[in-house]
Amino acid sequence: MPNTVRIPTPLRKLTAERDTVTAGGANIGEILDDLEKSHPGLKERICDEQGNIRRFVNIFVNDEDIRFLQEQATAVKDGDEISIVPAIAGG
What we know:
There is one protein chain. With about 90 residues, the protein is of the alpha+beta class. It has a single domain, classed as Ubiquitin-like (UB roll) (Roll). Helix content is about 20%, strand content about 25%. The chain is built from 2 helices and 5 strands, in the order ββααβββ. It has helices at about 30-40, 40-45, and strands at about 5, 20-25, 55-60, 65, 80-85. A hairpin with a 2-residue loop joins strand 3 (about 55-60) and strand 4 (about 65). The termini are far apart.
């Protein structure tokens, strides 16, 4: 069973305007690779040139921030919900 990935509004042009898509993989890194296969250009918006998740992008697995888990090595299991959330700046 694939995982549901919630896509933020700024990235929906790469997913045919869909707010959720599905992707498979054993961890977040594999999920991102699978997303790139289905939606070319998505990974480069999420990751920098070295393959690290950009500072202004947060990814959650079932409401847990992967920065406090194992980053891209964070394991996912079938049915987990993954959310990609751009950071919001303001003052």
